[in-house]
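Journal club side-thread
Mid-discussion, someone asked how the predicted structure for our own chain would compare to the paper's figures. Pasting it here so we can look after the session.
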Amino acid sequence: MVPTTNENLIIPIDRKSVESIADWFDQQKNRFYPLGWTYVKTQRQMEELFYRSIMKVHKELHRLKGETDFESWVTSIFIHICREFTTDISLLASEENNPHNDLFQALDQLNMEEKEALVLTLCERIPI
């Protein structure tokens, strides 16, 4: 198990269990949802981002070194998957609408690095 901390909360991550990783993401969704919405337009696409991220973390968990911060490592995987996802045109075509279109249209005016920095900064300041 890889223990990870979030303030005083310790979340055990079982190296063999996809469920423990999914549970960790569920507890951290308030941090990852705003970031994900900067890349996708629908709930279905958001779910796909989380699914791909959970599976990638599970697959790569054996590479995590003890000195690496788990949350930072997972965040970098999530961002990488978001970037890959937005290049896949077939997954971006959908009839659903994002309930926060005005905000995300404004964010779309920023370049990707500015958008990520803004969202990550805001997520750090929003209490979970």
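Post-session note: Helices lie at 18-27, 29-37, 43-60, 70-86, 89-92, 101-107, 112-125.
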